[in-house]
Each structure stands twice: as structure tokens, then as C-alpha cells.
Amino acid sequence: MRNIRFGIRIVLVLLLFLISAFIMGLLKIMIRLFNHDLADKVIFKFVKPFCLVLNKICGIRLQIEGQENIPEKNGFLVVGNHYSYIEAFCTMSIVPAVPVSKEEIKSWPVFGLAARIGGTVFVNRDKGGVSGRYIESLVQTLKKNINIIFFPEGTTTDGTYLKRFKSALFVVANRLKVPVLPTVSTVVSIEGKAVPQDKRDMIAWYGGVPFIPHITQVLKYRYVELKFKIGKPVIPEYDDTSLNERRAFAVRIQTYMDSMLRSIDPLYKGIINDPK
After folding, report:
1. Rg (CA), the chain
2. Taking the complete model, does pTM exceed 0.70, yes or no?
3. What are phi and psi of 222, to 5 degrees?
């Protein structure tokens, strides 16, 4: 039964990405002939329904707390803890946003094409996210009233702790004085059974585990339940030419998200500010 479930889901996921890429790509090309910014805004409207359908196909169920904290006006920065690819899509099904992602994803078949059409902002991690090119790209995206989501840990974990937050991309929100919306999530259960700490890798994708075997296993589960908590938006106000002030703001958001995680995840351990 699990193999049949996987077969059906992988076909549906591929169809969803292919059909979405075709429709959105064609629409984007047509609208860009008249108005470049309008094309991006129209495609942004597809993000939330796309992710909702993806959740349904993959059997993802969500418990959500704090939806009233989502700003009414778009054009803000969403940040979250990062332990998988699942919580990224789930977050975007709650708060529509285009992701910041590593440039390697551009070359992925089907998924890379869909990401480019959907407005993903790609960053070369080797060159550093603080470069003027990336900051300006993100600023222009926010100015179009398109939300951006990124994960300041810069990598995935098993979800039971927070790593040191990178401060560079918070600069974008500071320069425009738009809200930073903290969000956190955790795995509640797989097929109705709680996930013990030593089994977090059943959902969490970290430590160099190959992607294909991991997602194959995830798509075999009947359903997975995640819990999300959305915090109150924070409007930054600091001197972003000062490295110390940039880092202080990142620590402020990290501390807030730490308290949020403690309230929803009994297995959460806390902050690990390693020097790396």
C-alpha cells in the first residue's frame, strides 16, 4: 500500500509542478510584454494555492496558532526555523511568500524551472548573501508588495534546536522599514504517532542525507502533522552599516523564536550558537 501511495503521489507532484510551470510561465511571459512588475505580482498570487494543493497531495496536516499576527499588507519578510523542505512549503501555504534559495536549485529538473518562474530569489552562498546584488534584488521584490521567506540558520537541523542566525538578509527589511514576521514549526506526529527525538530524521532532512531516498520515504506516509506558531511582526530599526547592530537584531529575532518553539515543542532544546 505504501508503494502504491508513493507512486500516486510522485506522479501528482510532478504533474502539479509541470502544469503550474507551464501555466505560470506562459502567463508571466504574456504579462511581461506590457508590465514587468505586474507579471511578478500576478505570479505571486499563485504561491499560496500551489502550496495548499501540494500539502494536500503529500498528506500534510497543519495546526496553526497566531494567524491573526500576519500583516494585512504584503511586502514583508518571513523567517522560520529550518529542518526540512516540508516546513518551507507549509509556511508558504499559510503566509504566501517567495523563498530565498541556493543557486544550485536553478538547475534541478522540473523543480528548478518552477522555482524560477515562481519568483524564487537565488543566492550564491559562496559569495555571501550580504552582497549588494542580492540585497537590491530582495529590496525590489519587497517593493512590489511580494513577501519573502528565508531561514536565517542557513542550513537544516533535526528541528530540536536553533543554530546561530545569519544577519545579512534582515538588512532588507531594515532599509525599507517593513515587518519581519517570525514563524516556527515542529513535527507533531506521523500517521497519528508522536515522533521521538531519535526518529526526527523521518521528516527532518539534514546532515547530508540524500534527497531522493528521504522524500521517497516521506511520500509513503499516510499523513504527517505539523504545528506552526506565528509570532507578532517586528519592524527593525537599527544601523545596518554596523555589524554589531545587525547581529544584535538577528539575536533579538532568534530569542523570540526560541521562546515560541519552547511553547510548542516539548523536545526542543534551545539555542546552539556555535562559532561556525
Report:
1. 18
2. yes
3. -65, -50
